[in-house]
Specification:
The chain is mainly alpha-helical and about 100 residues long. The protein has 6 helices and no strands. It has a single domain, classed as DNA polymerase, domain 1 (Orthogonal Bundle), CATH 1.10.150.
Amino acid sequence: MKKKLTEINIESILEENKKFKEENKSDAGDDLAGKLKTKITDLPLRIRTMNLLKALDCDTLGDIVTKDQSFFMQFRSFGAGEIYEIMTVLELYDLDFGMDVK
């Protein structure tokens, strides 16, 4: 059975994220402050997603988690694929949208 292009992309993203997490277990540390300072350029994100985040001045994980999912959904450029990709990366760091990090 043929897979759709989007299914293949999502599977490859999940596989890449899994490898990334295994390789970088201690890099970000277990502390929340260290995770929040992680730059998006250090994350396993597609270029499109990274560019969309940069356009919204989201340069770190901390910038992303302080916003809720609906913030990103209001922009036409953000589709379900980009949201899913960001959610997957946040999950790698045990983070979520809409966190109060103060």
